[in-house]
C-alpha cells in the first residue's frame, strides 16, 4: 500500500548523519511537490520557496541523485529525468544556513558575549549526541567560554552556550551544528502584567450609548473587574427551565473555569489587551454582555439541552438590547470532531438556525475552532512534526460548534515569543513550540468544515505552548500565551491581568474586530460585515518552513489559516491604493447578476509592484443538519471576467445554466469554450482558491495576483458575475440575501486607485464605491 508523506516521515530513521544533509536549490520557474521528494529516496527537513533541506539515507543515494541531475542536464548520456527540472543544484550547508532568523536580524557585534541556543543534528544515538555536546563544551572552555545548559532527548540535542563573534564563526562551519540562534526575545513582559496597578492605567469611561455589543456566551464574568465594569451592560445566567441546576450569580461559574469567561471578556472589549497594557491606556469601544451557560462545575446541565440554553441567551439579548449584534462562543465539544461526509453537529446547526431566523437583525456569530492536544506524541515529536501533525490527523479537525456554516470560525496563531524573560532561565534550555509571531498555534484545529467548506474562516492570536527540557507544558501558558484580564484581581494578592492560550481567546479578538466594523457601518448587513472582514484578512508572510513559499490558496494554508488574520483598518478604510467596491443586496434563486467594474487605471498595470484583485462573497442560506447531500439549501458562487462585454457574459451563463445540473457541480462557470475574449485574450480572471473549493462555504474569497507584462487587458470594465442556485430550499423561499466586496490593490501608495475609480464610478453605476 502506498504510504502518505506523513507516514513516510514518521517511518524515516530518527537519526541524521550530518554529512548527508544538503540543500536542493530550486528553479524559481519550476515546481517540486513535497510528495515527489520522498520518491527520490530523500527525507525533507524543511523547505521554502528557494530551497529544500533534505537528508540522504546514504552516500550512494547522494551520488545517484547527482548522477541523475547530470544526465538530465545532458552532461552524461542517459535518460533525462524530467521530474528533476525543479532542482538546479545540490549544495552543502553554509554558515548562513546554520544561522537562525533572529541571529541574522540581530547579529553578534564585535566584543559581545551572548548566550545563544546551539542545536546539533541528532544522530539517533544519545551517547553520540552527548559526546558532541562534550566536544562543544571542551572547545568553548579552551576559549574561556561556557556551556550553561544542555538537553539531549530522543530527537533533540540542544546546547545553551556563551559565544563571541570569532567562536560563533567557527561553530557555524561545523557539520554537526544544525542551527545557532538567539534566545527568544520577549515580545511582552509578564512582569508588566503581574506588577501593574490600576493607578498606572488610564481607563476611559463607558462606551458610547449606542455602541455595538458583544455577547460572550461562556462561564460568566468577574463583573467588578475595574477594566470590565465600565463596559459591562448586562450579565445573566441561563439555567435549566426549573432553575434547579445552574444557581448563583452571573459570575459564579467563572470560578471553576479558572476565569475563562473573564479572560474572553477582556479580549472582546479591548481586542489586543497587550497593546493596551503597553500604552497604559484602556478605551472600551464596545459593550459587553455576559451569558453564563455553565453550572458550578463548569459543565452544561445534563438534563437540559445546550441548544435550548443557547436560544434562550440569544433571544434574551436580542429582545432587550438592539445593539447586541455579535455573539462569541468560545466553548466546544472535543468529542465532536468533524469528518468529511458526517452530518452537521446539532449545536453548530442550532447556531446556523438562529443566524438564519434572526437574519433581519444582522447578528454575527464568532466561534473558536477548538484546541487539539495530540496525546500520542512526545514533546520532541511535536517539535519535529510541527505544524504537520495539525494537518495530518483527523482528530485535529474543527469541533462542534466551530463547524457552523454561517458563523465566523477562528483558528489560532502565536502571539509572539516568550512573554517574560524570567520564564526563560537564561542558563536553561527552554523555548516556545511555535516561537514566532503569527505562526499557527501548536494546538489550533484545522479544516475542512461541512461539505468541504473552508474552516476555520480566519485565524488570530491564541498563544503558544512551552517546551521545557523535552516536556510540553500545556497547562502553564503564562509565558507563551495572550495577555488578558484576570478574575482574581482583588488586592492584596490579586492581579489585573493574566496570560492565556487557546483558540478560545482568538475568537473574542475577531468578535471585537467585527463589533468595530458594525460600529463603523451600523446599517450594514451581517453578510457585508463578514465580507469586509474577509477582505481585510491576510495570511502572514512569515510562516513555518514547511509552509513557506507555497501559495496562500494551497489547501494546507486554507485549512490552517482560512483566509488569514483579520485587520480592522484594512477592512475599514479604502486607501488610495486599495479600493473596496461594495454591494449589499438580494438575488432571486436560480438567477445571476452582473456587475460592471470601472476600468482599471493604466497605472495599476504599468507601475512596478505587487498588485491584486480580490472578491469576497457572503450569504446566509437556510440549513438543515439532516441533509446528507447538501447542508446548505442554497449555493452561491462568483466569477470575474475581462476583455468581454456584459451581454456576452450573460449569454454564456444562460447557456451554462441550461445544462445538466450534475455537470455544474465541479466545473467553473461558464465553460471557457462558451466565452471568448477579443484577440484571443483569456476572458476568465483566475481567482484562487478555485470555484469548487470556495463555493462550499457561505464566506468566500478569491484572489488574483496580477503579474506585470503577462496580464492581457484591453481597458474595458471588468465583469463580476454572482450566481445563486437552489439546492433543496423550499419553494416559498424565492430570494437570497448576499454581499459582495471587490478590492483592487497596489503596493505602491502613489498609485491613486481611489480617486480614479471614484471618477469612473459615476459612469458605471452598477456597483457602489465606498468612500
Task: Please tell me about this protein's structure.
The relative contact order is 0.09. The chain has 4 domains: 5-92, Alpha-Beta Plaits; 102-182, Phospho-2-dehydro-3-deoxyheptonate aldolase, domain 1 (Alpha-Beta Plaits, 2-Layer Sandwich), CATH 3.30.70.1140; 203-561, 3-Layer(aba) Sandwich (Rossmann fold), CATH 3.40.50; 574-769, GOLD domain (Jelly Rolls). β6 (147-152) and β7 (157-163) form a beta hairpin. α9 runs parallel beside α15 and α11 packs parallel to α12. The longest helix is centred in the first third of the chain and has 17 residues, at 126-142. The chain has 22 helices and 33 strands. It is globular, with a radius of gyration of 28 Å. With 771 residues, it is an alpha+beta fold. The model is unreliable at 1-14, 75-80, 185-191, 418-427, 660-667 and 764-771 (pLDDT under 50). It has a 7-stranded parallel β-sheet with strand order 11-13-10-14-16-18-20, sandwiched between helices. Strands 30-27-32-25-33 form a 5-stranded antiparallel β-sheet. A 4-stranded antiparallel β-sheet has the order 2-3-1-4, with no helix packed on it.
